[in-house]
Amino acid sequence: MNNDKEFWDKYANENESKFNEEFAKFVRDLVVSLRCTSVLEIGCGTGIDLRLFPDTFVVHGVDLNDTALDIAKTKSLTFNFKKSSIVDLPFKDSSVDFVFTHQLLNYLEDSVLEKGISEMHRVAGKYIMNCELYNELETQINSNSKFRNMQKRWLDYKVKIVSNVDMHEEIDPQKSRFTLLRKL
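Now predict its structure.
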């Protein structure tokens, strides 16, 4: 997929205009309802999906883009944003209650995706959520991304599939597939 710094810097600078309050509320309310106290977004960009969490939560975001992380740090001063890859997360085993991605996995090569899933499982304490553009066969969307079937990808892990449905368009206009897993 695309590793071009110019592409990702442009993406980071446009990320703020993509703030979707309904999706951010959905994530926050889901984490609260599951009685989690810590959350990690992998591929957090500028942190827009984390922005509505109160300071009572331990909030982490990781991304590889310095521009995005600089913006995130200025918008959410008490959150912990770090430069890190999905294949090498700087967290202890089972240390974060709720770990999620939002249209990150669509941009990853298959080999990186497999390593990333393993890392997500390793650091998750209770729940894992993926919201990714979906089709069963994981066909190419464009030169930068592929559709993902995350339910299929999680079958070899010790997880219980809680939900695997399309997001309602009022929450996510692109109707990403919402996959929620309980770590066993």
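The chain has one domain: 5-183.
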